[in-house]
Amino acid sequence: MPERKKVLALCGSTRSKSTNLNFIEAVAALGNQSFEINMYPSLAALPHFNPDLDTDTPPSEVAEFRRLIVESDGVLICTPEYALGVPGSLKNALDWLVSSCELSHKPVALITAATSGAKAHESLLGTLQMIEAEVGEKSQLLISFAKTKINYSSEITDKITLAAIEELIEAFTFSMHSKVLSHPTTE
What we know:
- Helices cover about 35% and strands about 15% of the residues.
- The protein has five helices and five strands; from the N terminus they run βαβαβαβαβα.
- Strand 4 (about 110-115), helix 4 (about 120-130) and strand 5 (about 140-145) form a beta-alpha-beta unit.
- This is FMN reductase.
- InterPro entries: Flavoprotein-like_sf, FMN_Rdtase-like_dom, NAD(P)H-dep_reductase.
């Protein structure tokens, strides 16, 4: 059996009991044979992006965030849609990664779980593409009317959504295991 990969999860919602957190917990349970999910504690704790502070010695919270990204084999992002866009705390976190390239060629699984979500999903895919994150077609999922598809115990109650998440987990796991082959390090 292949080794379990390390995944850093970013929740786009800052609510303590959000639907998006429920989906992260569901992915962690369903994918626990393939990877271990470590939850980033709070995107809201990162300072507002400021290019003047984006130096070789960024704020300590940013340095720690970047370190966790580097040490992970992949990143799981699960986010709602706010005002037809990406939540500010998530966009701010990604802004801190633009110049430092931690997400460049890093496997990313993206779940947008919202009432609609299409605009945020599209916007986030554009940002991730610009910073060269590897988000495969099967490693992304838009879950509309998300609250009707999962319960408060993080159990997916919709069979179609469950099948889609299982497919996402399989594709994401494959991308993490094949990353070494597609982007070998040079020494």
